[in-house]
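Obj.: predict assembly geometry.
Materials: sequence records (below).
Method: joint structure prediction, all chains together.
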Amino acid sequence: MAAQLLVKLENVNKFYPKLTSSRERLQALWAVLRGKGEYARHPVLQNISLEVYQGETLGIIGENGAGKSTLLKHIAGVVKPSSGKVRVTGRIGALLELGAGFHPEYTGRENLQLSGALMGMGDAELQDKLAGIIEFADIGAYIDEPIKHYSSGMVVRLGFALITASRPDLLITDEVLAVGDESFQKKCTHWMEDYLGNGGTLLLCSHSMFHVQKLCQKACWIKEGRMVSYGEAFQVTQEYLAYHEEKSRQEVRPQTALSAAAYQVKDLWLQGEKEGGLAVIPMGEELKVRGEVYSPDDRTPTVAVGIMRINGAEIYGFTSDVDGVVLKRQQPTRFRFALTFPRLALLPGRYKLCAHAMDPEGMRLFDVVEREFQVVGRTRELGVCHLAHEWQENLP
Ligand SMILES: Nc1ncnc2c1ncn2[C@@H]1O[C@H](COP(=O)(O)OP(=O)(O)OP(=O)(O)O)[C@@H](O)[C@H]1O
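Observations (raw structure tokens):
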């Protein structure tokens, strides 16, 4: 059966008034009200056309102010286009702005009852689900406090917990998830993986390429209101990252005497790598990586080692300044690095191991060395990633 078309945008344009001071706003408002003029407008979305089918996952990426949230608001029906068409079918669960849809004076519990009713849940259904929602939100006694006393993380917890109960056909989330703490983000990510594994549809707006690559099959890049790239998530996020790399390279070039290849990964080895051949790693095994990096000014560089699935969305990464990668000085300007990736949830397939050399502050990416390898093994039908040791237990 063909997947259902849930979202269709045709040549959507959105203009917002370009007003800075409150005086300008008032003047413009008076002019419009008296029918004597128009205020200056600037395009926020330009000719956006897009289709999303049931079961698809689309990440929306772009710089601050690019128009991502405005795009999501159109799909959620919160904002109307200046021109063009927006058609959306199915039940929507939207997490857009912090606290949107909640009443600040009411308690969390009262807000859940109110929002649940607005989402079409009857009394019995709501009573049935309330305990589960409160458990997911995990905000303790705050559930009976007015929302205005909540931290931003607590508001997001409540909003997301409500969405888990409504099982929407289309889940729309803006950057708000980044507000939650790490354990809550993990919980949400697991829930989303489960939701997607069961045919859910996701539109995610994020500055985290990690999340977009992990959760989305497709991505679209919005730049100054226009869609500049649309396609496979890995491809589009790589284009976006390359654009930023180039941009920051141009920005820093005049301020520094260092050449672009100043810090260099000189070598990279993968355990199991054969001379000239492809390393083959059995699924669920630890992966040992070693390498050498050169520092032009004998300061200790930062090294990042990552794994990416070729033509896929999985990505893992560790850096020497934060976690995982051990870096030892061998000579004044030469360092050895080593990393053991824990038993990774890598599905059989071809992967790319990448080692990046960065400046000591980890701000500038200089050099990338790559090695391909293959993970082999047997899996059952796995829609969603599970931890490797779980797979091992399940293997015949
Ligand atoms: N209600 C509004 N009135 C006027 N201008 C607006 C309004 N909402 C958004 N804008 C403008 O539209 C542009 C796009 O904003 P939007 O919030 O969609 O960007 P974004 O890509 O989500 O950015 P960020 O990553 O910073 O969240 C910005 O220039 C913003 O100032």
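Conclusions so far: The radius of gyration is 24 Å.
To do: check interface contacts against the pulldown list.
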